[in-house]
Design brief:
By secondary structure, this protein is of the alpha+beta class. It is built from 5 helices and 3 strands. A 3-stranded antiparallel β-sheet has the order 1-3-2. The radius of gyration is 17 Å and the shape is elongated.
Length: 106
């Protein structure tokens, strides 16, 4: 059972959607969908230079979609499920009223 949270502010929703709008960042999100991954594995699996991947990881982290931890010289990234839940809730809120007909014009 999930705990009700405050509605996602529009600026946060915009930041999440903007971060997800890039195809490479979507690939990163999909790669992390199976669990935490080392940046070395992500560069190899996605065929990206570390500098390019680092940029995209930074954008996703700043948007609140990723968390990281360092172990030795390696950094491990994982999705933040609460950010995904917040975005899901925001989108569901849009869907709640999208079929409501317009008021009749006078």
């Amino acid at each position: 059972m999930s705990v009700a949270t405050a509605p996602l502010p529009i600026d946060q929703a915009r930041a999440l959607l903007k971060a997800l709008a890039d195809p490479l960042r979507l690939q990163v999100i999909e790669a992390l969908g199976g669990g935490e991954r080392c940046v070395c594995d992500l560069t190899s699996d996605l065929g990206l230079a570390q500098s390019k991947l680092s940029f995209h990881l930074k954008v996703l982290k700043e948007a609140g979609l990723l968390a990281d931890r360092q172990e030795g010289r390696w950094i491990y990234y994982r999705l933040r499920p609460e950010a995904i839940d917040d975005l899901r809730g925001w989108l569901a809120g849009l869907g709640t009223h999208c079929s409501k007909p317009a008021a009749t014009c006078q």
